[in-house]
Amino acid sequence: MIRLINISLFCIILIGCVSQIAPFKDSMSFWKGKEISEYIKVSQSPHADESQYVGARRISKLDNGNKVYEFPYPKCPVFFEVDSKGIIVDITTEGDKDCY
Prior knowledge:
Blueprint: H1 2-18, H2 24-28, H3 36-43, E1 58-61, E2 67-72, E3 77-82, E4 88-93
Antiparallel strand pairs: 1-2, 2-3, 3-4
């Protein structure tokens, strides 16, 4: 009986911990309103970016004057739209996927 209680408590704790992991898009939305230079700095620190950014970013210009920074991640590319002041105004993924 005690063993069953211990297993039950372990499962409850485990489920609680797993449910605290935020979806990729939710964790990336933290960067909206921040400078792209800050994100680039953090993404270059291997211990800080849990999404495992891999490779060189590409930058494209939009007709409205903003730029799109494409960051390749293992599961899908992430696109940061950045205004003329260097502030991230939007973050999207290819096909609106959650990249975790």
